[in-house]
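R.M. (postdoc): so does anyone remember the format we settled on? I'll just put the structure tokens first.
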């Protein structure tokens, strides 16, 4: 098991290196993209553009530019924004990360717990009227886009019914750090948590139900029943554990993407200053250092979480463990 973890860690480092090179080439060597011209303002002179390129090392050979950028990003950590002169990129991302983590972790807890309960209930109650009802609710959740559901939630909680006893506690859009006021932190995030988790609850519940029904007739399940184990024990200790492999795989992908900036729509709708919103703003202003840093940040979380998922595979199913 240890050798498997070591190999997976080394593979993760290689993937991250390849991603940094690829992202650098895309954003800094794409025809028509000239950050120096954008920083120089309107109608710049050639001398001004040349001076800016020299100041930022943009007139150096491409490999040298890459090394300089990686050094400023990971070692000296003094990479600055092209749009907001003097603003350090790394501290900006570090400041936005807790917002995104708070949003995604809270939503993930909700969607995992509710999806497991719904999937188990639908599998146990198959053949009854409750099974299609639960799956219909799940399908409704999958069908509602996050931005639309978020806007509807804001319309109800921030505008139309804000003065009612149900939603008078909801604060204005924004974010309060947990360290400053835990209660206000929770109030700012509870509605975004519910909105962001709605899509994933339906998807994960349907996936888990299908896996439970498929694994119900496997040999190891029949063996467990033949040993006289109760149906509850067979379901929770045997069928559910194997069925969670696909569930965990999906969770790893979705969680990594959301932490890496995939929660952008939720952050924009609810005014949360997270990494997704930062990425969106840097893309609109073509702020290449921030774009580069946020993309690498997102790739890091996606690759690391998927490596953790591979390790979880080996724990959930001994058959995938290396010899």
């Amino acid at each position: 098991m240890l050798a498997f973890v070591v190999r997976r860690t080394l593979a993760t480092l290689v993937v991250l290196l390849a991603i940094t090179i690829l992202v650098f080439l895309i954003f800094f060597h794409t025809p028509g993209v000239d950050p120096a011209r954008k920083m120089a303002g309107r109608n710049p002179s050639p001398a001004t553009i040349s001076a800016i390129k020299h100041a930022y090392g943009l007139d150096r050979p491409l490999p040298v530019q890459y090394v300089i950028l990686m050094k400023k990003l990971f070692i000296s950590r003094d990479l600055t924004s092209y749009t907001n002169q003097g603003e350090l990129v790394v501290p900006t991302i570090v400041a936005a990360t807790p917002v995104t983590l708070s949003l995604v972790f809270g939503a993930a807890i909700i969607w995992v717990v509710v999806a497991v309960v719904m999937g188990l209930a639908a599998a146990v109650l198959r053949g009854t009227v409750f099974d299609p009802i639960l799956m219909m609710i799940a399908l409704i959740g999958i069908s509602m886009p996050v931005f639309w559901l978020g806007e509807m939630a804001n319309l109800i909680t921030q505008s139309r019914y804000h003065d009612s006893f149900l939603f008078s506690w909801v604060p204005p859009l924004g974010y309060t750090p947990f360290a400053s006021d835990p209660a206000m932190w929770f109030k700012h995030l509870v509605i975004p948590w519910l909105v962001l988790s709605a899509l994933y609850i339906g998807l994960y519940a349907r996936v888990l139900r299908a896996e439970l029904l498929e694994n119900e007739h496997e040999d190891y399940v029949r063996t467990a029943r033949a040993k006289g184990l109760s149906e509850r024990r067979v379901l929770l200790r045997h069928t559910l554990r194997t069925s969670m492999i696909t569930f965990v795989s999906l969770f790893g992908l979705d969680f990594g993407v959301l932490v890496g900036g995939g929660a952008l729509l939720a952050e924009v709708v609810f005014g949360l200053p997270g990494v997704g919103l930062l990425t969106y703003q840097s893309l609109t202003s073509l702020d290449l250092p921030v774009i580069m840093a946020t993309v690498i940040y997102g790739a890091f979380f996606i690759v690391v979480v998927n490596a953790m998922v591979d390790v979880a595979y080996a724990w959930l199913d001994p058959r995938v463990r290396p010899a």
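R.M.: ...and that's the designed sequence above, right after the tokens. Also worth knowing: Residues 97-320 form a domain with the MetI-like fold fold (CATH 1.10.3720.10). The mean pLDDT is 82.
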